[in-house]
Amino acid sequence: MDIDTFRDYCLDKKGVTEHMPFGPETLVFKLMGKMFALVSLDAVPLRVNLKCDPHKSLELRTEFDGKIIPGYHMNKEHWNTLILDGQIPGELIFELTDHSYQLIVNSLTKKQKQEFDHL
């Protein structure tokens, strides 16, 4: 998967904004100010950090050994790094992106959820 496909997929989600708070080499996608995806633009192959349920993280890391690893520069329990070299099916990348996004939706405060519902 290339950066354009991943970026378009993220930006098509309700309320998502993109930022570069860590410099020009890291693209960050946020919902209501909370990160759900980070892309290392200078990494070859492309690397994406996504939030993930801790139990699911362990399963994925076992199944995709060396391709889904603990989140680089992130909380290793709640973030995974996906190495996008063609070994992880695109459908799974989208599914894990949706999962990360949904974790943020589920964590919104009542006020944020009201704002989100009106977007």
From TrEMBL:
Identification of the protein by name: MmcQ/YjbR family DNA-binding protein
One example GO MF annotation: DNA binding
SUPFAM superfamilies (alphabetical): YjbR-like
The entry's keywords: DNA-binding
Pfam families membership: YjbR
